What we know:
Elements: H1 2-13, E1 20-29, E2 41-42, E3 44-57, E4 62-67, E5 76-79, H2 93-104, E6 113-119, H3 129-144, H4 151-164, H5 173-179, E7 185-190, E8 195-200, E9 206-212, H6 224-239, H7 252-258, H8 265-289, H9 293-309, H10 316-326, E10 331-337, E11 344-350, H11 354-369, E12 374-378, E13 385-386
Parallel strand pairs: 4-6
Antiparallel strand pairs: 1-3, 1-13, 2-7, 3-6, 4-5, 7-8, 9-11, 9-12, 10-11
Bound molecules: alpha-D-galactopyranose.
Amino acid sequence: MKDIILKKFAEVYGDAEGARAFFAPGRVNLIGEHTDYNGGHVFPCALTIGTYAAARKREDRKLRFFSMNFEHLGVIESSLDDLEPRREAGWTNYPKGVMWAFGKKGYEIPCGLDILLNGNIPNGSGLSSSASVEIVTGYILSELFGLGVSNQDLALIGQFSENNFNGVNCGIMDQFAIAMGKKDNAIFLDTSDLSYEYAPIRLDGAKIVISCSNKKRGLGSSKYNERREECETALQEIQAGMGINTLGDLTEEQFESVKMAVKDEDRRKRAKHAVYENQRTIKAVAALKANDIALFGKLMNESHVSLRDDYEVTGEELDTLVETAWTIDGVIGSRMTGAGFGGCTVSIVKDEAVDEFIKKVGEHYKSVIGYEADFYVVEIGSGPCEL
Length: 387
Ligand code: GLA
Protein backbone atom coordinates (compact mmCIF):
# COMPACT_ATOMS: atom_id res chain seq x y z
CA MET A 1 0.00 0.00 0.00
CA LYS A 2 2.90 2.36 0.72
CA ASP A 3 3.95 2.19 -2.94
CA ILE A 4 0.42 2.77 -4.15
CA ILE A 5 -0.14 5.90 -2.09
CA LEU A 6 3.29 7.38 -2.80
CA LYS A 7 2.82 6.78 -6.52
CA LYS A 8 -0.58 8.45 -6.42
CA PHE A 9 0.86 11.27 -4.32
CA ALA A 10 3.41 11.95 -7.07
CA GLU A 11 0.67 11.88 -9.70
CA VAL A 12 -1.54 14.31 -7.77
CA TYR A 13 1.09 16.69 -6.39
CA GLY A 14 3.83 16.51 -9.07
CA ASP A 15 6.37 14.39 -7.17
CA ALA A 16 6.64 12.46 -3.92
CA GLU A 17 9.97 13.79 -2.76
CA GLY A 18 10.03 14.09 1.02
CA ALA A 19 6.58 12.50 1.40
CA ARG A 20 6.15 10.01 4.22
CA ALA A 21 3.53 7.28 4.52
CA PHE A 22 1.37 6.49 7.56
CA PHE A 23 -1.52 4.29 8.67
CA ALA A 24 -4.24 4.41 11.32
CA PRO A 25 -6.74 1.57 11.81
CA GLY A 26 -10.53 1.44 11.98
CA ARG A 27 -12.21 -0.11 15.01
CA VAL A 28 -14.97 -2.46 15.99
CA ASN A 29 -16.57 -2.51 19.40
CA LEU A 30 -17.12 -6.03 20.76
CA ILE A 31 -19.41 -4.96 23.61
CA GLY A 32 -20.21 -1.83 25.66
CA GLU A 33 -22.34 0.33 23.37
CA HIS A 34 -23.50 3.85 24.18
CA THR A 35 -21.73 3.58 27.52
CA ASP A 36 -18.74 5.81 26.75
CA TYR A 37 -20.58 9.07 27.38
CA ASN A 38 -22.19 7.57 30.48
CA GLY A 39 -19.01 6.92 32.42
CA GLY A 40 -19.17 3.20 31.63
CA HIS A 41 -16.89 0.57 30.13
CA VAL A 42 -16.29 -0.28 26.49
CA PHE A 43 -14.45 -3.17 24.86
CA PRO A 44 -13.36 -2.23 21.34
CA CYS A 45 -10.41 -3.31 19.22
CA ALA A 46 -8.49 -1.75 16.34
CA LEU A 47 -8.65 -3.51 12.97
CA THR A 48 -6.05 -4.23 10.31
CA ILE A 49 -8.13 -2.20 7.85
CA GLY A 50 -7.95 1.56 8.16
CA THR A 51 -6.69 4.77 6.58
CA TYR A 52 -3.41 4.99 4.67
CA ALA A 53 -1.92 8.44 4.21
CA ALA A 54 1.01 10.12 2.52
CA ALA A 55 2.01 13.59 3.67
CA ARG A 56 4.67 16.21 3.21
CA LYS A 57 5.37 19.66 4.60
CA ARG A 58 4.99 22.73 2.42
CA GLU A 59 6.82 26.01 2.53
CA ASP A 60 3.71 28.15 2.78
CA ARG A 61 0.56 27.88 4.90
CA LYS A 62 -1.52 26.14 2.25
CA LEU A 63 -3.26 22.84 2.90
CA ARG A 64 -3.96 20.47 0.03
CA PHE A 65 -6.03 17.33 0.48
CA PHE A 66 -6.76 14.47 -1.88
CA SER A 67 -8.66 11.27 -1.11
CA MET A 68 -8.42 8.20 -3.31
CA ASN A 69 -11.87 7.33 -1.95
CA PHE A 70 -13.34 10.54 -3.38
CA GLU A 71 -11.17 10.98 -6.47
CA HIS A 72 -13.92 12.86 -8.29
CA LEU A 73 -13.57 15.71 -5.80
CA GLY A 74 -9.98 16.28 -6.90
CA VAL A 75 -7.54 18.30 -4.80
CA ILE A 76 -9.29 20.30 -2.09
CA GLU A 77 -7.36 23.37 -1.01
CA SER A 78 -7.47 25.26 2.23
CA SER A 79 -5.11 27.12 4.52
CA LEU A 80 -3.91 27.02 8.10
CA ASP A 81 -5.39 30.50 8.34
CA ASP A 82 -8.84 29.21 7.49
CA LEU A 83 -9.51 26.42 9.96
CA GLU A 84 -13.28 26.74 10.10
CA PRO A 85 -15.81 23.96 9.58
CA ARG A 86 -17.45 24.38 6.18
CA ARG A 87 -20.12 22.21 4.67
CA GLU A 88 -18.56 22.40 1.20
CA ALA A 89 -15.23 21.19 2.62
CA GLY A 90 -16.79 17.69 2.93
CA TRP A 91 -14.43 15.05 4.34
CA THR A 92 -11.59 17.54 4.77
CA ASN A 93 -13.43 18.90 7.81
CA TYR A 94 -12.00 15.90 9.69
CA PRO A 95 -8.29 16.55 9.11
CA LYS A 96 -8.87 20.31 9.34
CA GLY A 97 -10.66 19.81 12.65
CA VAL A 98 -7.63 17.98 14.03
CA MET A 99 -5.30 20.78 12.89
CA TRP A 100 -7.59 23.29 14.56
CA ALA A 101 -7.67 21.16 17.73
CA PHE A 102 -3.85 20.93 17.81
CA GLY A 103 -3.78 24.73 17.83
CA LYS A 104 -6.37 24.89 20.63
CA LYS A 105 -4.27 22.48 22.69
CA GLY A 106 -1.20 24.66 22.27
CA TYR A 107 0.69 22.80 19.53
CA GLU A 108 2.01 25.01 16.79
CA ILE A 109 1.71 23.82 13.22
CA PRO A 110 4.44 25.87 11.53
CA CYS A 111 3.62 25.27 7.85
CA GLY A 112 1.07 23.81 5.47
CA LEU A 113 0.89 20.26 4.15
CA ASP A 114 0.03 18.17 1.12
CA ILE A 115 -1.92 15.13 2.24
CA LEU A 116 -3.29 12.14 0.35
CA LEU A 117 -5.53 9.53 1.94
CA ASN A 118 -6.64 6.08 0.91
CA GLY A 119 -8.94 4.22 3.26
CA ASN A 120 -10.11 0.63 3.06
CA ILE A 121 -12.80 0.94 5.72
CA PRO A 122 -16.22 0.99 4.07
CA ASN A 123 -17.51 4.59 4.41
CA GLY A 124 -20.33 5.16 6.86
CA SER A 125 -20.14 1.52 7.92
CA GLY A 126 -19.79 2.25 11.62
CA LEU A 127 -16.18 1.08 11.73
CA SER A 128 -15.06 4.63 12.49
CA SER A 129 -13.59 5.79 9.24
CA SER A 130 -13.84 9.38 10.51
CA ALA A 131 -11.98 8.69 13.76
CA SER A 132 -9.38 6.81 11.72
CA VAL A 133 -8.87 9.91 9.55
CA GLU A 134 -8.61 12.03 12.69
CA ILE A 135 -5.98 9.81 14.28
CA VAL A 136 -3.90 9.44 11.13
CA THR A 137 -3.94 13.24 10.78
CA GLY A 138 -2.87 13.74 14.39
CA TYR A 139 -0.13 11.17 13.99
CA ILE A 140 1.13 12.90 10.83
CA LEU A 141 1.23 16.28 12.58
CA SER A 142 3.03 14.84 15.60
CA GLU A 143 5.61 13.00 13.46
CA LEU A 144 6.25 15.61 10.75
CA PHE A 145 6.60 18.46 13.23
CA GLY A 146 8.27 16.47 16.01
CA LEU A 147 5.54 17.34 18.51
CA GLY A 148 5.83 14.11 20.50
CA VAL A 149 2.09 13.84 21.21
CA SER A 150 1.26 10.59 23.05
CA ASN A 151 -1.23 8.22 21.46
CA GLN A 152 -3.66 8.80 24.31
CA ASP A 153 -3.49 12.55 23.70
CA LEU A 154 -4.04 11.95 19.99
CA ALA A 155 -7.28 10.21 20.98
CA LEU A 156 -8.37 13.12 23.18
CA ILE A 157 -7.50 15.69 20.51
CA GLY A 158 -9.40 13.64 17.92
CA GLN A 159 -12.49 13.53 20.13
CA PHE A 160 -12.14 17.26 20.92
CA SER A 161 -12.11 18.06 17.20
CA GLU A 162 -15.07 15.81 16.47
CA ASN A 163 -17.08 17.41 19.32
CA ASN A 164 -16.13 21.02 18.75
CA PHE A 165 -15.27 21.31 15.07
CA ASN A 166 -17.53 18.69 13.50
CA GLY A 167 -20.40 19.03 15.96
CA VAL A 168 -20.79 15.36 16.88
CA ASN A 169 -21.01 14.90 20.61
CA CYS A 170 -19.26 11.49 20.52
CA GLY A 171 -17.56 9.79 23.45
CA ILE A 172 -13.92 8.74 23.58
CA MET A 173 -14.27 5.13 22.46
CA ASP A 174 -13.52 5.34 18.74
CA GLN A 175 -10.49 7.58 18.91
CA PHE A 176 -9.11 5.70 21.92
CA ALA A 177 -9.55 2.27 20.31
CA ILE A 178 -7.76 3.48 17.18
CA ALA A 179 -4.94 5.42 18.81
CA MET A 180 -4.25 2.76 21.47
CA GLY A 181 -4.92 -0.37 19.38
CA LYS A 182 -2.81 -3.46 19.98
CA LYS A 183 -2.62 -6.46 17.67
CA ASP A 184 -4.80 -9.39 18.77
CA ASN A 185 -6.05 -7.49 21.83
CA ALA A 186 -9.23 -5.66 22.67
CA ILE A 187 -9.13 -2.69 25.05
CA PHE A 188 -11.15 -2.80 28.26
CA LEU A 189 -11.53 0.92 28.85
CA ASP A 190 -13.20 2.61 31.79
CA THR A 191 -14.42 5.85 30.26
CA SER A 192 -14.93 7.47 33.68
CA ASP A 193 -11.17 7.84 34.21
CA LEU A 194 -9.57 6.43 31.03
CA SER A 195 -7.93 3.56 32.92
CA TYR A 196 -7.61 0.59 30.60
CA GLU A 197 -6.32 -2.90 30.22
CA TYR A 198 -5.53 -4.95 27.12
CA ALA A 199 -7.27 -8.31 26.87
CA PRO A 200 -5.97 -10.87 24.39
CA ILE A 201 -8.66 -12.15 22.03
CA ARG A 202 -7.93 -15.80 21.41
CA LEU A 203 -10.80 -17.06 19.33
CA ASP A 204 -9.46 -20.55 18.73
CA GLY A 205 -11.57 -21.90 15.92
CA ALA A 206 -13.69 -18.76 15.44
CA LYS A 207 -13.57 -15.49 13.53
CA ILE A 208 -14.86 -11.94 13.90
CA VAL A 209 -17.26 -11.25 11.05
CA ILE A 210 -18.54 -7.75 10.30
CA SER A 211 -21.84 -7.51 8.42
CA CYS A 212 -22.31 -4.13 6.86
CA SER A 213 -25.95 -3.10 6.38
CA ASN A 214 -25.12 -0.57 3.65
CA LYS A 215 -27.76 1.67 5.13
CA LYS A 216 -26.13 5.05 4.98
CA ARG A 217 -26.22 7.15 8.06
CA GLY A 218 -24.58 10.36 9.20
CA LEU A 219 -23.88 10.48 12.91
CA GLY A 220 -24.55 14.22 13.01
CA SER A 221 -28.02 13.88 11.58
CA SER A 222 -28.88 10.77 13.58
CA LYS A 223 -30.47 10.56 16.96
CA TYR A 224 -27.09 10.14 18.61
CA ASN A 225 -27.04 13.53 20.28
CA GLU A 226 -30.67 13.06 21.34
CA ARG A 227 -29.84 9.78 23.15
CA ARG A 228 -26.99 11.48 24.88
CA GLU A 229 -29.26 14.23 26.14
CA GLU A 230 -31.82 11.71 27.35
CA CYS A 231 -29.12 10.00 29.41
CA GLU A 232 -27.93 13.31 30.83
CA THR A 233 -31.44 14.24 31.91
CA ALA A 234 -32.00 10.80 33.47
CA LEU A 235 -28.73 11.16 35.38
CA GLN A 236 -29.79 14.55 36.75
CA GLU A 237 -33.12 13.10 37.89
CA ILE A 238 -31.35 10.25 39.72
CA GLN A 239 -28.74 12.61 41.16
CA ALA A 240 -31.49 14.59 42.90
CA GLY A 241 -31.72 11.73 45.40
CA MET A 242 -28.37 9.98 45.18
CA GLY A 243 -24.73 11.05 45.00
CA ILE A 244 -23.45 9.52 41.76
CA ASN A 245 -21.31 11.04 39.03
CA THR A 246 -22.42 8.99 36.04
CA LEU A 247 -24.89 6.24 35.15
CA GLY A 248 -21.86 3.97 35.01
CA ASP A 249 -21.61 4.23 38.80
CA LEU A 250 -24.80 2.21 39.25
CA THR A 251 -25.23 -1.55 39.54
CA GLU A 252 -28.39 -3.12 38.15
CA GLU A 253 -29.85 -3.45 41.66
CA GLN A 254 -29.15 0.18 42.52
CA PHE A 255 -30.75 1.28 39.27
CA GLU A 256 -33.87 -0.77 39.94
CA SER A 257 -34.26 0.86 43.33
CA VAL A 258 -33.96 4.44 42.05
CA LYS A 259 -35.30 4.18 38.52
CA MET A 260 -38.67 5.79 39.24
CA ALA A 261 -36.83 9.07 39.78
CA VAL A 262 -36.61 9.12 35.98
CA LYS A 263 -40.02 10.48 35.08
CA ASP A 264 -40.34 9.65 31.41
CA GLU A 265 -40.68 5.99 30.46
CA ASP A 266 -38.55 6.19 27.31
CA ARG A 267 -35.85 8.04 29.19
CA ARG A 268 -35.96 5.38 31.92
CA LYS A 269 -35.32 2.73 29.25
CA ARG A 270 -32.32 4.67 27.91
CA ALA A 271 -30.84 4.89 31.41
CA LYS A 272 -31.52 1.20 32.00
CA HIS A 273 -29.56 0.33 28.89
CA ALA A 274 -26.63 2.48 29.96
CA VAL A 275 -26.49 0.82 33.39
CA TYR A 276 -27.06 -2.78 32.29
CA GLU A 277 -24.77 -2.52 29.25
CA ASN A 278 -21.94 -1.29 31.43
CA GLN A 279 -22.38 -4.23 33.84
CA ARG A 280 -22.67 -6.61 30.86
CA THR A 281 -19.36 -5.34 29.52
CA ILE A 282 -17.63 -5.97 32.85
CA LYS A 283 -19.12 -9.49 32.92
CA ALA A 284 -18.18 -10.15 29.30
CA VAL A 285 -14.53 -9.32 29.89
CA ALA A 286 -14.50 -11.56 32.97
CA ALA A 287 -16.02 -14.36 30.86
CA LEU A 288 -13.36 -13.89 28.20
CA LYS A 289 -10.61 -14.05 30.79
CA ALA A 290 -12.12 -17.28 32.10
CA ASN A 291 -12.10 -18.60 28.53
CA ASP A 292 -15.90 -18.78 28.57
CA ILE A 293 -16.49 -17.63 25.03
CA ALA A 294 -20.04 -19.01 25.03
CA LEU A 295 -20.98 -16.65 27.87
CA PHE A 296 -19.22 -13.79 26.07
CA GLY A 297 -21.41 -14.51 23.02
CA LYS A 298 -24.57 -14.67 25.09
CA LEU A 299 -23.80 -11.26 26.59
CA MET A 300 -23.23 -9.88 23.08
CA ASN A 301 -26.72 -11.11 22.14
CA GLU A 302 -28.23 -9.53 25.24
CA SER A 303 -26.47 -6.29 24.36
CA HIS A 304 -28.25 -6.25 21.01
CA VAL A 305 -31.65 -6.89 22.60
CA SER A 306 -31.09 -3.98 24.96
CA LEU A 307 -29.99 -1.69 22.11
CA ARG A 308 -33.05 -2.77 20.14
CA ASP A 309 -35.72 -2.60 22.85
CA ASP A 310 -34.49 -0.13 25.44
CA TYR A 311 -32.07 2.17 23.63
CA GLU A 312 -33.90 1.89 20.30
CA VAL A 313 -30.96 2.52 18.01
CA THR A 314 -31.02 -0.60 15.82
CA GLY A 315 -33.67 -0.45 13.09
CA GLU A 316 -34.88 -3.09 10.66
CA GLU A 317 -31.57 -3.49 8.82
CA LEU A 318 -29.40 -4.21 11.87
CA ASP A 319 -32.12 -6.34 13.48
CA THR A 320 -32.44 -8.45 10.34
CA LEU A 321 -28.69 -9.05 10.21
CA VAL A 322 -28.45 -9.98 13.88
CA GLU A 323 -31.64 -11.98 14.21
CA THR A 324 -30.73 -14.04 11.14
CA ALA A 325 -27.24 -14.61 12.52
CA TRP A 326 -28.73 -15.96 15.76
CA THR A 327 -30.47 -18.77 13.82
CA ILE A 328 -27.21 -20.17 12.46
CA ASP A 329 -25.34 -22.97 14.22
CA GLY A 330 -21.81 -21.91 14.94
CA VAL A 331 -22.67 -18.28 15.73
CA ILE A 332 -21.32 -17.65 19.22
CA GLY A 333 -22.70 -14.12 19.48
CA SER A 334 -23.97 -11.32 17.27
CA ARG A 335 -24.91 -7.69 17.89
CA MET A 336 -24.98 -4.27 16.29
CA THR A 337 -21.79 -2.30 16.83
CA GLY A 338 -21.06 1.43 16.90
CA ALA A 339 -23.66 4.16 17.07
CA GLY A 340 -26.42 2.14 15.34
CA PHE A 341 -29.18 3.54 13.07
CA GLY A 342 -27.48 1.68 10.22
CA GLY A 343 -23.81 0.79 10.04
CA CYS A 344 -22.83 -2.75 10.85
CA THR A 345 -23.00 -5.74 13.16
CA VAL A 346 -20.24 -7.80 14.74
CA SER A 347 -20.52 -11.56 15.07
CA ILE A 348 -18.25 -14.23 16.44
CA VAL A 349 -18.60 -17.21 14.15
CA LYS A 350 -16.97 -20.64 14.27
CA ASP A 351 -14.56 -21.18 11.37
CA GLU A 352 -16.61 -23.94 9.79
CA ALA A 353 -19.79 -21.82 9.85
CA VAL A 354 -18.41 -18.63 8.27
CA ASP A 355 -19.33 -19.51 4.66
CA GLU A 356 -22.84 -20.56 5.59
CA PHE A 357 -23.20 -17.43 7.73
CA ILE A 358 -22.33 -15.13 4.85
CA LYS A 359 -24.59 -16.99 2.44
CA LYS A 360 -27.64 -17.29 4.71
CA VAL A 361 -27.48 -13.86 6.33
CA GLY A 362 -26.72 -12.30 2.94
CA GLU A 363 -29.63 -13.96 1.16
CA HIS A 364 -32.14 -13.32 3.90
CA TYR A 365 -31.05 -9.68 4.23
CA LYS A 366 -31.45 -9.09 0.50
CA SER A 367 -34.89 -10.66 0.48
CA VAL A 368 -36.15 -8.59 3.44
CA ILE A 369 -34.36 -5.27 2.91
CA GLY A 370 -34.08 -5.24 -0.88
CA TYR A 371 -30.35 -4.55 -1.24
CA GLU A 372 -27.16 -6.41 -0.39
CA ALA A 373 -25.19 -6.49 2.83
CA ASP A 374 -21.39 -6.80 2.72
CA PHE A 375 -19.34 -9.13 4.89
CA TYR A 376 -15.80 -8.79 6.17
CA VAL A 377 -13.82 -11.34 8.15
CA VAL A 378 -11.56 -9.01 10.13
CA GLU A 379 -8.43 -9.21 12.21
CA ILE A 380 -7.39 -7.17 15.22
CA GLY A 381 -4.56 -4.79 14.42
CA SER A 382 -2.38 -2.15 16.07
CA GLY A 383 -2.61 1.61 16.44
CA PRO A 384 -1.15 4.28 14.13
CA CYS A 385 2.28 3.84 12.58
CA GLU A 386 4.62 5.13 9.91
CA LEU A 387 4.92 2.71 7.01
C1 GLA B 1 -20.17 6.20 18.14
C2 GLA B 1 -19.42 7.21 18.99
C3 GLA B 1 -18.77 6.53 20.20
C4 GLA B 1 -19.80 5.67 20.95
C5 GLA B 1 -20.58 4.77 20.00
C6 GLA B 1 -21.69 4.03 20.68
O1 GLA B 1 -19.28 5.29 17.56
O2 GLA B 1 -18.43 7.85 18.24
O3 GLA B 1 -18.19 7.48 21.04
O4 GLA B 1 -20.65 6.47 21.72
O5 GLA B 1 -21.12 5.50 18.92
O6 GLA B 1 -21.19 3.12 21.61
